[in-house]
Structures are given as structure tokens and as C-alpha cells.
Design brief:
A hairpin with a 5-residue loop joins β1 and β2. It contains four helices and seven strands, in the order ββββαββαβαα. It has a single domain, classed as GMP Synthetase, Chain A, domain 3 (2-Layer Sandwich), CATH 3.30.300. It is α+β, with helices and mostly antiparallel strands and about 140 residues long.
């Protein structure tokens, strides 16, 4: 999906935006999610981009555990480290009771990206101001 701002700039806000670009490296959420659900204690997982001052974006994994399961974050991280390159490991691991889903049962990543923006607001870069500066530079040319 594409959203066009009043000033004419277009932003990709769905589907294509599923790929996380962290420090120039592409991270595919499906790959990270597949590793997370290998654990018997994990019922489902969804990985989305969270803003980061240093890398631009980092992964935020929302993990739904099976009923009665309790997995320490260190165990989740150890499993990810054993199966993924270091840059693919999400910076944030968040336990959730349920992932938001649409009527057909698909995970609503748009909702999770919005939640990540709120959950990690204190670490959010001043991207709005950077974007505004960039747009002003382009307009002046």
C-alpha cells in the first residue's frame, strides 16, 4: 500500500515495507519468525521494523507463547543466535498474549509496526526532522 502525503511525497506503508533494512542489511521477517516458532514453547511470532537511531531500523519480535509455557528471553536469544546471523536477531523481543489478526487470520503487521513505534518511542530517532530536512533540500534544488 502506498500513502501520499499532502506535500506530494509517497511512503510505502504495507507489504513491501515488511523487509527490514538495518544498517544496509536486508532482514526478512519470515526467516526470523520461522526460527522462533521452531521452539516448542512458541505458538506464533511476528517480526516488524522498529526505528533505531544508529541502524535506521531494527527488528522487533512479538512472540506468542503456548498456553502454560514460560521461556526466558535469554533462551529465545540463544536460539536465535544459534540459527541466524547476528544482524538478523531482533533488538526487541516482546511477549504478547495474542497477535493482532484480520478476518482471514493474517497477522496485522501494520498494527504491530504502530505498536513498535509506541513501545520503543524513547529510542525513536528524530527521523521526522531528518525527513523534513531532506525534503527541504530537494525542494531547494
Amino acid at each position: 500500500m502506498l500513502r501520499v502525503a499532502p506535500d506530494g511525497w509517497a511512503d510505502v506503508v504495507d507489504r513491501v515495507k515488511d523487509v527490514i533494512i538495518s544498517g544496509g542489511e536486508n532482514i526478512y521477517p519470515a526467516e526470523v519468525e520461522a526460527v522462533l516458532v521452531q521452539l516448542d514453547s512458541v505458538a506464533d511470532a511476528a517480526v516488524v521494523a522498529a526505528p533505531d537511531e544508529r541502524w535506521g531500523e531494527v527488528g522487533a519480535a512479538y512472540v506468542q507463547l503456548r498456553a502454560g509455557a514460560d521461556v526466558p528471553e535469554q533462551e529465545l536469544r540463544a536460539h536465535l543466535e544459534a540459527h541466524l546471523a547476528r544482524y538478523k536477531i531482533p533488538k526487541y523481543l516482546v511477549r504478547t498474549d495474542a497477535l493482532p489478526r484480520n478476518a482471514t487470520g493474517k497477522v496485522r503487521r501494520v498494527d504491530l509496526r504502530a505498536r513498535a513505534a509506541v513501545d520503543f518511542a524513547s529510542e525513536r530517532p528524530s527521523e521526522y526532522f531528518r525527513d523534513q530536512w531532506f525534503r527541504e533540500q530537494v525542494r531547494q534544488r
